[in-house]
Amino acid sequence: MKLSIIMPVYNEKDTIERVISEVLSVDLGMEKELIIVDDASVDGTRSIIEKMEINNIKKVFHPKNLGKGSAIKSAIKEITGDIVIIQDADLEYPPQENYKVLIEPIKKGYADVVYGSRFLGLHRVFLFWHFLANKLLILITNILYNTMLSDMETGAKAFRTDVIKSFSIESKRFNVEPEITAKVFKKGYKVLEVPIVYCGRSYKEGKKIGIFDIFEAIFTLIKYRLFK
Q1: What's the rounded Cα separation, in Å, for the pair 23 and 52?
Q2: How many other C-beta atoms are found inside a 10 Å radius of the C-beta of residue 181?
């Protein structure tokens, strides 16, 4: 069995080397490949990635900034593993703490998709308004899709490869998270939630998602429930 880790990257020069090192050092008793998609970083991140000569890394470079959704779409084309994890390029989701708990339900056949919940596990104290926005999105998701998720926008998700390849990703930005969630539940895949370790960062530390993305996420959830 083989694990593919896909990593969308944009302007993460301060964390990129460490997160790659942590991803590659996780011992899961299985083969791993890391697929990095640099989304036209302008802070020196691309240069750092280009200079890396490490086995089991695939590198994709976007000629212009297209957004997280587009980066994930590019990475999916390169997957050769049996299970896929999406890994952000910051250090909010520690690989050593989370990978085993994310993939075990899939390996054992309990789930097609696993969501790592920031609200069930050990986490850094959230920004209040960020926490409140997440709770609103979770409520809307559960009403529209008749489910009981505790964390829809989590950046720690694992999939059977055939599941994630069954989607045609349309969202270009952060609204890829609600799009994926909508398609997972509309297709009836088995979803499990597990507690994860989450070390959230502040906007001063580089967090990128903003208020516009919250409204876009709500629109995306409604669109895929009623019109797609």
Answers
A1: 14
A2: 27
Q: State the SS3 of the chain.
A: CEEEEEEEECCCCCCHHHHHHHHHHCCCCCEEEEEEEECCCCCCHHHHHHHCCCCCEEEEECCCCCCHHHHHHHHHCCCCCCEEEECCCCCCCCHHHHHHHHHHHHHCCCCCEEEEECCCCCECCCCHHHHHHHHHHHHHHHHHHCCCCCCCCCCCEEEEHHHHCCCCCCCCCCCHHHHHHHHHHHCCCCEEEEECCECCCCCCCCCCCCHHHHHHHHHHHHHHHHCC
Q: pTM of whole model > 0.85?
A: yes
Residue pLDDT, tens place only, 108-122: 999 999 999 988 866
* Banded model confidence at residue 127, pLDDT cuts 50, 70, 90: low
Domains of the chain: 2-226 (3.90.550.10)
Smallest CA-to-CA distance from 71 within 41, 47, 36, 46 is with 36
C-alpha closest to that of 95 among 170, 41, 22, 11: 22
